[in-house]
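User: Cadherin-12. Structure?
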Amino acid sequence: QLHSDLDKGVGTVKYTLSGDGAGTVFTIDETTGDIHAIRSLDREEKPFYTLRAQAVDVDTKKPLEPESEFIIKVQDINDNEPKFLDGPYIASVPEMSPVGAYVLQVKATDADDPTYGNSARVVYSILQGQPYFSIDPKTGVIRTALPNMDREVKEQYQVLIQAKDMGGQLGGLAGTTTVNITLTDVNDNPPRFPKSIFHLKVPETSHIGTAIGRIRAVDPDFGKNAEIEYNIVPGDGGNLFDITTDEYTQEGVIKLKKPLDFETKKAYTFKVEASNLHLDHRFHSVGPFKDTATVKINVLDMDEPPVFSKPMYTMEVYEDTPVGTIIGAVTAQDLDAGSSSVRYFMDWKNDVDSYFTIDAIEGTIATNQLLDRESTAQYNFSIIASKVSNPLLTSKVNVIINVLDVNEFPPEISVPYETSVCENAKPGQVIQTITAADKDLSPAGQRFSFKLSSEASNKPNFTVHDYRNNTAGIETRRNGYSRRQQELYFLPVVIEDSSYPVQSSTNTLTIRVCRCDSDGTIQSCNVEAIFLPVGLSTGALIAILLCIVILLVIVVLYVALRRQKKKDTLMTSKEDIRDNVIHYDDEGGGEEDTQAFDIGALRNPKVIEDNKIRRDIKPDTLRFTRHRPPAEDNTDIRDFINQRLQENDVDPSAPPYDSLATYAYEGNGSVAESLSSIDSLTTEADQDYDYLSDWGPRFKILADMFGEESYNPDKVT
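Assistant: Predicted structure:
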């Protein structure tokens, strides 16, 4: 209640309220000043409210006192239960842990005021999960309550935890949560074989590396703690087998390490040990973490192919051995109980195998052709053996035959040498080192010897020094050599081998004399060296060649000028009367050109021409024979020419292009008219030569000769 000292209780004072929650949560009686809550309060929602109050005069509406501020605090009550905000929980703890081993800590939260009463005081307890686990009432830490909890017995546990406020007293509110606890595995169990003896059966034909059986030891542990390693205990038959671990099934896989033979041994017995890879030292006192079992393997008898006495056969034979010579034999046996007979034959693959044959019963190998070591030094082929009782069962072996050499080829110089000697060489100087090669297969210790041939030993030019290591040196025997006297020397060298029979050959070395400097370095071995002693240098030779070329050019120019001058002498001056005659380089068309036209046909019309090919052109095809009627006597030349023209027009062999034909008759229509005397006037008086002056300067002299002279018939005698 609010009350002002100025309030006399007569109703002249009015109380007002403002601030947090005024009018919504709290209200005030304007006359008495009593404050009331108009709805329920929640401390967890808002723990206090700040309000302002004032006393006002009813009549004047003016404040009677300054405004005052006050706080209304909400008092807490236990209306909230504890809550596990992180639940439910998941935890794990190793199996076989001791009592009190830490598992997990849980925590519950109470929204009530922890400073007022016991409303927020929480106490923890286990409602489900005893006697395996315990919890601290104050801290909420969960621990193991029993020793040696075994995962293999029970792996999962569910624990129900309760948190209660009011210190756990009656009337307190409580909340619960679940904790799922898993026991993790530790290696507390050794592997154990379910039985002490394992029986396996294996065919004797099983290949090496083949898996012939599986055994398994059981380990109740999990993960890496259950990984098992298998080992064969050294003993009877254990060296023929091997065992590995299948990483997915943890089984022991027994594999064959060596071949089996039923005829040799029918059964094998050995022990296998299984042990854990990852041990836990805390459980060593329990006992050894391994177990042992016996494995018995029975070998099954199978029908096997024959077996050769050797994995490979090597034989030797001399080349040129006669055909049919036995060079060796192979042997195979049937090791089965029945002991069948064996037959041999060659594995034909190529023509090389035809050089040898094999006896099908005895297995002896003989030559079938003459052998040549230089052609093939080694033969490699296969022999197959099969059982008579079961030909499908076969085995194969490789046979290598080395062809031994017979000394049949003489040694020769290994490479062609280009030997040279200086003109200033001294006696005893080595100018070339030579080696030899032999096509025969040289046995160990074979040596080659070198010497001069008998005819060259008497010449004082060169000698051969045998170094006795299959090489020799060519040495000079003279003090200097002259290239001008002899440019090449041919030295015959005899080379012998040391095999039997001894083979030898004569090899000719070509030695060229060269020009060298004082240090023995070759400067030139070509033709130039011959001219150098005369005193002509390279520059002098080049100068001589240039002079010869210049002289040739002068001669050519002189001949060209002479020809040009000869042509100029043929040209005449304008005053020469022969200016009227024009000279051309080409001739033809006149009467003397017998190749262009036969003028005899015009002179004698009776001449009948046979099939005559024109000589002024080259026809593409053969002409057809033309038959012309003979010209009658007193036939005009004009008619004859027209007749020839028509014949040429219809001739299929005539060229398709225009051709110039020269006739003796010019015809009418010429500007100068005809010069022939056929149509000339009978007397010179009828001639008018004035037109010659119109023909130009070339006819000026003719015009003067005939134009100026007047004809006088009286002077004609």
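Residues 208 and 256 are 5 Å apart (CA to CA). The longest helix spans residues 538-569.
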